[in-house]
Amino acid sequence: MKIKKKEIASEIFTGSMADISFLLIIYFMITSAFSATRGLDFALPEETDTPEIKQEDSIEVHVMPGGAIEVDKKGLPLDGLLPYVLERLQQNPEKPVILRTDPEATYGDMITVFDRLRRANEEWVDADGNAKYTDVNGNPLTEIKTISIPTQREIENIWNLLGMG
Amino acid sequence: MALIRGRDRGTGAQIFTASMADIVFLLIVFFVLTYKVEVDKTQMNLPETWIRKKVPEKAAVISIAPPDKGSTIRVSTGEEMALPVSTIEEVITFASTEVAKNPDREFILKADENSPYARVDEVLDALKQSKVKYIFLLSEQLTASEK
């Protein structure tokens, strides 16, 4: 007589898989914040190659509290900043721009002006990537070569050096 | 005579769930790949800029909380959660240590747009003293209408 073997069905129980998967989805959705991953880059000068900047050789942009700007001690609207800088750089493309911010102003005020200066790369170049303007020597002018952001301590150091502290 | 009726064949309303597992796993894979731990969770309004460059991953982070949250400075190596520091000297120590490990170390400065510039100036000065070379000022996108 033959005895029938009982087949044991081997199955992986998947009933709870959906629960586990949803739990994981919810966990990753909540913990992965869409963080800001872009910003303005800014390279600090290395102390060894910092050229000495004479005040009369530079374009001084002063950000006042409230966001108003003074360029070379004259008030200018923000839209007038790049045209003014362009005009000055056309005479001497090596001129650095010094961005000084009043301690009473906000970080947002300073960033707005810094961003405007950085836009020179876009505004002075046409759609084909060619320079729209040239300097006195006929060289293409596509960017502000040096934008310097001195800190309050550095400014005070310079004043002390000049004996004005 | 009792009316004999055939059993009602209920048209079973079913939602087809066989592909649910695929969809769910696709979503899990997406979230796992895009998952990034935010080292500094301070809520703030970042300034808006037109020029925005991608910040390097794993760069050290220095955040300045908004003035209404005490303008607290937090520092992070980019891998651990940001820790608050009480003095600017601690920022110099932190940045110098990072620069000693890697002279080209990049730093991300995350500050609220309403932070007084004096506070940001202190941090920038600390970074300059620590011989930091590259700083990224974290920002949101300025829309074309505001340009």
Q: What is the tally of beta strands of chain A? A: 8
Taking all Cα atoms into account, the compactness measure Rg of chain B is 26 Å
Note the run of SSEs of chain B as H and E: HEEEEEHEHEE
CATH structural class of the domain at 48-146 in chain B? Alpha Beta
CATH architecture classification name of the domain at 48-146 in chain B: 2-Layer Sandwich
- Rg result of chain A: 30 Å
Indicate the proportion of strand residues of chain A: 15-25%
Q: How would you classify the helix and strand content of chain A by structural class?
A: alpha/beta
Largest sheet of chain A: 5 strands, mixed
As a percent range, the share of helical residues of chain B equals 25-40%
End-to-end distance of chain A: 114 Å
Largest interface: A-B, 47 and 53 residues
Low-confidence stretches of chain B: none
User: Reading side by side through the largest sheet of chain A, how are the strands ordered?
Assistant: 4-3-2-5-8
Structural class of chain B: alpha/beta
Q: Within the largest sheet of chain B, what's the order of strands?
A: 5-4-3-6-7
- Record field, number of beta strands of chain B: 8
CATH topology of the domain at 48-146 in chain B: Nucleotidyltransferase, domain 5
Mean pLDDT of chain A equals 83
